[in-house]
Amino acid sequence: MYYNPYPYFVYPNYYPTWAMATQQPSRHLAMPTNSTNRSPFPTINTNKLKTSAKRIKVIMQQAQLLTDKIDESEQFAHDLMDAAQLSNKTEVEKLIASTGITIKFETNYTPDGIRIIFTDSDCCKLTVNLTW
């Protein structure tokens, strides 16, 4: 049987007063609706966001080194895929580092693909998922 949590009254004049009352919206909404400065959130400071955006560009350039090497070299792509499928972590990390990557990275791989997580201290991370 279908359960309706909202009551429906058959007779038009039978609605209880609580259903007919017009309620004011709560002043404690998740997102403020007015433009006054009564926001429960702190003032906006974009310095950390802008710093993260600058630092992620460096990470993206490092990831570009790896993807360019995979795209340009059939032998490199073969060696990386072979080492990953054999779970040879040291060889996978050596191959990735040989592309010129200088930042910290972590690798995880499965028989279906590889995931490389580039990390710049506590600022930002970039995850690259490649499948084969």
If you had to describe this structure to a student in words, what would you say it looks like?
By secondary structure, the chain is an alpha+beta fold. Helices cover 39% and strands 17% of the residues. It has 4 helices and 3 strands, in the order ααααβββ. It has helices at residues 17-20, 47-72, 74-85, 89-97; strands spanning 104-110, 113-120, 124-131. Strands 1-2-3 form a 3-stranded antiparallel beta sheet, covered by helices on one side. Strand 1 (104-110) and strand 2 (113-120) form a beta hairpin. The chain is flat and about 70 Å long. The model has no long low-confidence stretch (mean pLDDT 81).
List the helices and strands and how they pair.
Elements: H1 17-20, H2 47-72, H3 74-85, H4 89-97, E1 104-110, E2 113-120, E3 124-131
Antiparallel strand pairs: 1-2, 2-3
Short summary of the structure?
The chain has 132 residues and is α+β, with helices and mostly antiparallel strands. The protein has four helices and three strands; from the N terminus they run ααααβββ.
Feature tags:
single chain; about 130 residues; alpha+beta; 3-stranded antiparallel β-sheet; about 40% helix; flat
Order of helices and strands: HHHHEEE
Q: Main sheet, how many strands, which sense, barrel?
A: 3 strands, antiparallel
* Percentage of residues in helical conformation: 25-40%
Silhouette: flat
What is the count of β-strands?
A: 3
Structural class: alpha+beta
Strand order of the largest sheet: 1-2-3
How many helices? Answer: 4
Q: What is the straight-line distance between the termini?
A: 49 Å
Strand content: 15-25%
Low-confidence stretches: none
Give the mean pLDDT. 81
Radius of gyration over alpha carbons? 28 Å
